[in-house]
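Can anyone check this?
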Amino acid sequence: MKGLLNLPQLTVEKVTEDGGHFIFIVSGDTPPAACCEAPCLVKNGTKRALYLDLPVQGKRVSIWVNRRRWFCKRCQKTIYQDVPHMDKHHGMTERLVRHIEAVSVKEPFTFIARELGVSEGTVRLVFRTYAARALANRNMTTPQWIGIGLVHYGHQLWTAVIDVESKTLLDLLPSRSEEAVTDFLRGLPGKEAIERVTIGMWEPYRKAVKSVLPWASLVVDRFHIAKQANETLECLRSAMAFPVSKHGLIRNGRRMVLRTPERLNPAQRVKLDTWLGSYPQLKAAYEAKERYRAIWESETRAEAEARYAEWERLLPPEMALIFRDLIHATDAWLEEILASVECGYPAQIYVNCVNGLQRLLNRLGHGYSFEVVRAKWLLKCRASGVPSAVC
């Protein structure tokens, strides 16, 4: 039983087992901490101190250490024996602290506290200390291509800054305001190396980038283009009063309308054609949306620009009214959208990274402060990058 502890510099005097709990009583032979001259120290009894350790055989472990103490006759101080293997700040073994540091990046604090038999406040304190130490001297290499995107945490909106090429998180900002992004970009070391910035269709992001990085090429990812077109079509579909179809043609109508034709199976295509054939206005809007989406699949910027001008020119007046918000957004962001055609597929990496980070955020749990979430993200991405499964 005494060999279960495996702390070589401590002598196990007694071991008891209380249900699902091991209790060790130990002592050590380490000398006292330095004070005045050794002849000034006199023994002053012992004091038991409680430390927690990693579970053994699935059972929690408590370690009572008989710490010797001395009294210094010169400086009138009480000096305690140093205890090896024990952390001086958290009342637990050093290996338990290292374990909490490692798992707290990935797991919720409440889960760790329940598994190890410590309080959630202790886990938070260990993580906060570890994060401050690990991120204090963080060396951030500024890439040539960054992405700035919006992420959600509960009802809060934050800004994620991403290294698009290496698919890692550069930083997390507590706001999506122009001031927050501007301050970050101004303080970014080596920002002169940035050549391209991918952003969502959010005007404060564009203003911040243009004010700090006027030489960088701005790109709007294709996801936001497709999203705008789909939102327009969905507004029309939901506004129309559809009768309930006994053949099930309307049941999954939203999915079929918003999904690209290439992703529909033959049965879904038949249903979609049957449905759209019954609603001419929706069919015309669907076909206009698909032609609009195909514009940004062009191989060159000039081709995409010409196809968009032709699409807008040939759009019937009633369809122009339906797509007026989409046309207005496209005209306002046309330069940035055309730049995405030049980038090709790599611009999609930005979307995948933002979506991947959003999924990671959703799995973190609720109730964390911005500082904790930011530290978890940065430490997780520093260790392994944004996981390839989501990027």
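Reply from J.R.: I decoded it. Confidence is low (pLDDT under 50) at residues 246-251, 384-391.
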